Amino acid sequence: MNWLFKHFRSSKHQNKASREASLKLEQLESRTMLDAQPVLIDINPTPSVHGSSPRNFTEMNGSVFFSASHPSTGHELWVTDGTSAGTQLVKDININYHSFPASLQNINNTLFFIANDGIHGEELWRSDGTSAGTYQVSSQPSSIREILNVDGDIYLYNGRDLWKSDGTSTGTELILSLEQGDFYHSEFVPIEDKLFFTTTDANSGTALWVTGGTSAGVQRIHSIPNIPFGNARYLAATQDTLFFAGWDANEKIALWKIETESSLTSPILVLESDTDVQDINHVTNVNGSVFFSVKNEAQESSLWVSDGTSSGTQFLHNLDNTSLEEGIRQIENVNGIAYINNHRIPYASDQVWISDGTPEGTTLLSEEFSSINQIENFIEVNGYAYFTAFLTSTGDELWRSDGTPEGTVLVADILPGPAASIVQEMKSINGTLYFQAYGIDENGKDIGNELWLYEYSPPELEITPDETVTTDDPILFTFQFSEAVTGFELEDIDITNGTAGVFTAVDEDTYTLEVMAIEDGEVTVNVVAGVAEDAGTNGNLAAIASVEYGSGVVFQSFVELFDHAPSEEAKTYWNQVLADEGYEVAVEGIVYSAERWEQIVEETYQELLGRSSYGDEGQSYWVNILVNRLITQTEFETFVFVSEEYLSTHPIDVMYLDTLSEHLYDRELTTDETTYYLEKIEDEVPPQAIIEEFLDQEEWRLNVIRNAYIESLGRPIDEEGEAFWENFLETGGTVTDFLVEILTSEEFMN
Fold first, then answer.
1. Nearest-angstrom CA–CA distance, 495 and 547
2. Which of 321, 499, 541, 552 lies 20 to 30 Å (CA to CA) from residue 401?
């Protein structure tokens, strides 16, 4: 146990590499296709415009289930492991026609879906992935429209009824039947074990409801009569809050929220309606905040964001929209950034905008694409935004963006030339994008709409300096790729405030570089994306790392003592002390500063007591007397080491006393002392009594006296002084009184 703190400690912190994201305007037409290409799985070999039309991709137990059409079976349930050989029919449910499996859900490692066997209509089915394990759960309800997974519970609805099921016939029950209205225009949003949803009827408009899973637990929250399709809509959930757009008492649109930990029947107004808020749409959760579009009185569309408070709700950008026809069509959360599809008139084209939730961080990513309504289907896969976009040279194809113009590229021209592959049914599963697209095979034959897979796994790069602050020169940076790469050279590294030294290829995925700092300050190394490639010719991700370098006495002292650079104020003060009073005074002042003692007190508490000193009255007490040099560091550590708190969780044994002896007397216990104290322990003498006896020794008092002279006066004590102070302590004087006398003496003051 290193509790003596005789050596300065410094923690090593890694400076994580970060991806650059420069948001600026740039045209996309010149973008080339990526080397990695989508993989085709041709399910329907018969020439057909429709192909197999795969959809409803859902992962379960490592396999991907979906619905697809084949000439011999019709549209049925299929499964794939991502290869053509591993793609097969699960079950032909409707042997005479199509069962049209829909709304596939993995709930507790069982696949639930809607299917029509030709006898019972659209019913609830389940599957374990085998033909024999695929069967109908119940004949009720019928005409199911959708299956919902709410915290592991199964919800399903048809035209007017909401049901809940545990996956068995007997466990399927009706929880709400609407006397008026229906679910045809409904929205459903789960938050933990609650389900929020809307219903619509001509008399009551659109109402907001919540259920906890029982008929008695269904509550109606929010509705305004006689406003059909005009009330609660665009439901969006953050961790424990529901946001939605809805009418207020004045029949004006407003932004509302419901906090699930408070009253569910009392929505809270977030953004009131006024002349600048005529309509609210596309409420979307992005990294815990909600983004939404607002139309003002002039019917101009703009982007807003809210953290759920009125003060935290703000206008971001009008996206250059100036007419009713222009406006936001989609907002998508991609790796904590909002991607916005914005349609423009009179250009008859779409734009891609990006926002981090601040006005200055809301930026146009790209120039307009060249056709109307042709940016669609934003989806996140491995931190990238995938979407479909139309160019006259390629038609409607699959694109990808990392949030930079140079990183916004065409994935593939699946149907070569200006014809469109019409990518749709996009789903991200375990880092792979599954989608449907119209294409051709390797022989140039039309295959119709078939299953495609695309996986992009670029080499990640982490740049790590040895320290986040350093006085070393040269500074060593390590470049760690996530896999073996080729083509990485010294010329690929940009250096700020430094010059390159020795560059070493440690192995196929690890490189190092020595950098000599030019001057005090931040030294930065930067590697842009795409300079190194893996075996699949995927270019690396960008990375950047910095270290703060300093060479002066003050900087070095702070780094050694505190593992951080001095503040500008501290640097100015101590450099002035250094200039006026010299090296020893400046360094001693830093060593004995309050910040240093706070660190020592905290380290001692953590090491010996297993807790923080902050918030404890003892912290300020110890720092005060240490700064004023009323006790030494050794004595402070001893006080903690022999405290009741420490002894309450650490037994007194010979090892403990031996450690204490080394600390106080710089020696181990003698054989006689070991035997003596061992008998005390075996006789169950109270620990505090043993400690008091151990400390009540002439040797300890002499050690305190001698150390105080060395530390405070810078010289050994003479025999006369030693005898005087030993008598002082033996006759009732305290150590504190002794130290006060030393620290107020003329010799110390001089």
1. 12
2. 321
Query: Are 397 and 389 in contact, with CB atoms under 8 Å apart?
Result: yes
304-323 tens-digit pLDDT: 999 998 889 999 998 876 66
CA-based angle 499:495:520, to the nearest 5?
A: 65
Strand 279-286: give its sheet, edge to edge: 279-286, 289-295, 301-306, 313-317
Mean pLDDT of the chain: 82
**Amino acid making up residue 10:** S
> In the numeric block, which tokens belong to residue 526?
């930067």
Residue 702: phi, psi to the nearest 5?
Answer: -65, -35
State pLDDT tens for residues 141-160: 888 999 999 999 999 998 88
What does the chain come to in residues? 750
Taking the domain 461-551, which CATH number applies?
A: 2.60.40.10
Structure confidence at residue 93 (pLDDT) = 96
Q: Are 237 and 243 in contact (CB under 8 A)?
A: yes
DSSP string over 628-676:
TTSS-HHHHHHHHHTSHHHHHHS---HHHHHHHHHHHHSSPPPHHHHHH
Q: What is the rounded CA–CA span in Å between residue 605 and residue 711? A: 23
Left if phi > 0, otherwise alpha if psi is -120 to 50, otherwise beta: which for 234?
A: left
Instruction: Output the pLDDT for position 747.
Output: 79
CA distance 715 to 722: 13
* pLDDT above 80: residue 344: no
What is the pLDDT at residue 698? Answer: 65
Contacts of 46 (CB under 8 A, 6+ apart): 71
Is the preceding peptide bond at 141 cis, omega within 30 degrees of 0?
A: yes
Q: Any idea which residue has 């990640």 for tokens?
A: 460
User: Which tokens is 441 given?
Assistant: 């095979």
Model-level pTM greater than 0.85?
no
* pLDDT tier for residue 467 given thresholds of 50, 70 and 90: confident
Helix/strand/coil percent split, the chain, to 5: 20, 35, 45
Phi, psi of 637 (to 5 degrees): -60, -35
Could you report the per-residue pLDDT of 547-590, keeping only the tens digit for each?
A: 988 877 777 777 777 777 777 788 888 888 888 887 777 777 77
443 close to 457: Cβ distance less than 8 angstroms:
no
Residue 58 contacts residue 64 (beta carbons within 8 Å): yes
Cα separation, 117 vs 618, in Å, equals 75
What tokens were used for 682?
Answer: 């075996």
Angle formed by the axes of helices 654-665 and 633-641, nearest 10°:
170
Domain boundaries, the chain: 461-551, 611-749
CB atoms within 10 A of CB 250: 9
| Strand-by-strand arrangement of the 88-91 sheet | 55-60, 63-70, 74-80, 88-91
Burial class (CB in 10 A: 0-12, 13-18, 19+), 100: buried
Q: Is the peptide bond before 686 cis (omega within 30 degrees of 0)?
A: no
* Distance, CA of 36 to CA of 304 (rounded, Å): 37
In terms of phi and psi (left: phi > 0; alpha: psi -120 to 50; beta: otherwise), the region of 382 is left
Q: How many CA atoms lie within 13 A of 524 on its CB side?
A: 9
Confidence of residue 424 (pLDDT cuts 50, 70, 90): very high
Taking each helix axis as running N to C, give the angle between helix 654-665 and helix 698-708, from 0 to 180 degrees, rounded to the nearest 10: 40
Q: How does DSSP assign 60-108, residue by residue?
A: ETTEEEEEEEETTTEEEEEEESSSSTT-EEEE-S-TTS----EEEEEET
Q: Are 525 and 495 in contact (CB under 8 A)?
A: yes
The number of CA neighbours under 13 Å toward the Cβ of 306 is 29
Phi, psi of 92 (to 5 degrees): -90, 95
